[in-house]
Amino acid sequence: VPSTSSRPQEKFSCAKVQQLVKSFLASRLEGVSYEAGPCTGLAQELSEEVRGLVRAVCPRRYKLVCVVTVGKKAREDAVVASRCLWDPHSDSFASCTYENPTLFCVVTVFAVYCE
């Protein structure tokens, strides 16, 4: 670990957050069908709810950024990608997807350590 890198006492647990988000999405989106208008608000609601859930299990001093993509499931493929600049020794992320017959949802939570 470089001397310029942050050294958190407790690291962000990607596995724990993925498990938490996966079970949350399954319960929250079961039976929801895609409609363009309401899904805009749904994405914002999901982002706030996921951030609250993750904040409860996240170590102190981590800033969270939650990105939610909700789309119509059709015959086309979709790719969700992101890039960022961070310290790989202290910062991390967790990502989870959910699909049902009419929609897909991709949730990515970035955890950035702040000293």
From TrEMBL:
<dbReference type="InterPro" id="IPR005334">
    <property type="entry name" value="Tctex-1-like"/>
</dbReference>
<dbReference type="GO" id="GO:0045505">
    <property type="term" value="F:dynein intermediate chain binding"/>
</dbReference>
<dbReference type="GO" id="GO:0007018">
    <property type="term" value="P:microtubule-based movement"/>
</dbReference>
<comment type="similarity">
    <text>Belongs to the dynein light chain Tctex-type family.</text>
</comment>
<protein>
    <recommendedName>
        <fullName>Tctex1 domain containing 1</fullName>
    </recommendedName>
</protein>
<dbReference type="Pfam" id="PF03645">
    <property type="entry name" value="Tctex-1"/>
</dbReference>
<dbReference type="GO" id="GO:0005868">
    <property type="term" value="C:cytoplasmic dynein complex"/>
</dbReference>
<dbReference type="GO" id="GO:0005737">
    <property type="term" value="C:cytoplasm"/>
</dbReference>
<dbReference type="InterPro" id="IPR038586">
    <property type="entry name" value="Tctex-1-like_sf"/>
</dbReference>
